[in-house]
Known about the structure:
Elements: H1 7-43, H2 48-55, H3 59-66, H4 74-84, E1 112-113, E2 121-125, E3 135-141, E4 156-163, E5 166-170, E6 173-177, E7 182-186, E8 190-193, E9 200-207
Amino acid sequence: xxxxxxxxxxxxxxxxxxxxGAGADEAAGGSALGTDLRAxxxxxxxxxxxxGLAIGRSVxxxxxxxxxxxxxxxxxxxxxxxxxxxxxSLFFGRAASDPQEQGVIVxxxxxxxxxxxxxxxVEELLSPDLxxxxxxxxxxxxxxxxxxxxxxxxxxxxxxxxxxxxxxxIAGTRYALGPGDSFHIDHxxxxxxxxxxxxxxxxxxxxxxxx
Length: 211
């Protein structure tokens, strides 16, 4: 009866196990990306055929990506981000975590950046992914930042001002908010402005997800 495998055998077994683990991690990452892509596409009501035509990929390939069976290239992701008008970083930033936390917990240092500082707005996704009926976003509006033209989205949104000063105009009526105030937008045009001299931090809940 053998007491243990030869050293070479143990080394080969270890390498095989490591490769299997890496493959599992890659598959899990692909599956998570696919879940987000499918949720984003459905929230925007875009058929696979329309997305495929826009980025030059087949419906079959995109279906495999959404199911975690194929990996899109960086160029694919750039085109998808451009099509949906979202930052490329939305598809990245998934730091390795305890498997029990996957899809449940988002650590402060693992949030995905989804805003554009050049526009005076920096945003982080607080939700683990985009598969839920809603998303939670932390938005930081830099001093003087403003949305020039009203935005109209097919969503319901609730915001809570954590700190700073914030103005929100909803359906033509402007409201001045202070820390602790909250607001709700129900399929109405809105725009915002930070009139203060410090960043305004707002936590938004948006349904369905727009990022």
